[in-house]
Design goal:
heterodimer, A: alpha+beta, 2 domains, 6-stranded mixed beta sheet, 9 strands, B: alpha+beta, two-stranded parallel sheet, 1 helix
């Protein structure tokens, strides 16, 4: 086989040096292992709610006294529950597995429940971008973990979970395990404190 | 006729409920916009509001991080 270096008149020693440098750079890059986030690309679209309707949904499904952040978009995409179960939740679990392998989860760091709830929102946003959809009707929720849910015990700490308005109704997701339930059956519904959409 | 009246009344109620809300401003469930009740809204982290029974006090939420520990976390190898 004819070498590409020979074909372009490269001397053999110089070619070996280039290959050596490339090998060292490749090894260095492999050692750094950047974190990647990926989201499924097949989000169904077409069902939306206005900002006023999303507020009404919060007002009806949450207990009184919960703070809701300003809603800055005119319309929000209602997410298909079927797609959530078939595509999104498996992708979310794979993402969390990757983070566990990278030893990211750690108390009092960016890799805590708050960071993972934001990551869930980011993944939904990426899927929505790919489908040219409206902003997903999703939020992060601060809640006092008075009761066990989704694999996390009753820590009685302020905890962070994800909210998604699906076409079957509002869901709460424990991002770290991928467990989900309807808002009406969420055991910590009464201790929700704040909902942040943006 | 009864159904029509009920529908009209329902729409009127829904319309009036939506009319008073500005979703681009902070809201509290059961109360509506915070800025619609300036005398009652108290956005602070102070511990002793003047009238604790009728104020909306935004706590300083500190998410302490409740993690599901799948495995013992060891220090990262560098």
């Amino acid at each position: 086989m004819r070498s590409i270096f020979q074909g372009r008149g490269w001397p053999g020693a110089a070619a070996r040096r280039v290959l050596l440098v490339a090998a060292v750079l490749a090894a260095t890059a492999a050692g750094r292992a950047d974190l990647d986030v990926s989201a499924p690309s097949d989000m169904p679209t077409g069902k939306t709610v206005t900002a006023e309707q999303l507020w009404q949904e919060f007002d009806h499904s949450l207990p009184p006294g919960v703070w809701v952040s300003p809603l800055e978009s005119k319309k929000y995409e209602v997410i298909s529950a079927r797609w959530m179960r078939r595509s999104f939740l498996p992708a979310l679990k794979r993402q969390m597995d990757t983070l566990w392998k990278e030893r990211v989860p750690e108390d009092d760091t960016a890799g805590n429940c708050n960071g993972f709830a934001l990551m869930c929102r980011l993944m939904l946003s990426l899927s929505a971008m790919d489908s040219h959809a409206c902003s997903p009707a999703a939020a992060t929720v601060i809640v006092k973990q008075d009761r066990a849910f989704g694999g996390l015990s009753a820590t009685r700490e302020d905890h962070c979970v994800a909210y998604v308005l699906t076409d079957e109704g509002p869901w709460i997701i424990e991002v770290q395990s991928g467990a989900h339930t309807m808002m009406g059956t969420y055991p910590n519904r009464e201790s929700i404190k704040l909902v942040s959409v943006h | 006729m009864k159904i029509a009246l009920t529908t009209i009344a329902g729409l009127a109620l829904a319309g009036s409920a939506l009319a008073g809300i500005d979703p681009t401003r902070p809201m509290v469930t059961g109360r509506g916009n915070v800025n619609a009740q300036p005398q009652k809204a108290l956005v602070t982290n102070q511990t002793a509001p003047a009238t604790p029974t009728d104020t909306m006090t935004l706590e300083k939420f500190v998410v302490t991080g409740s993690l599901i520990h799948r495995q013992p976390l060891a220090a990262k190898h560098k």
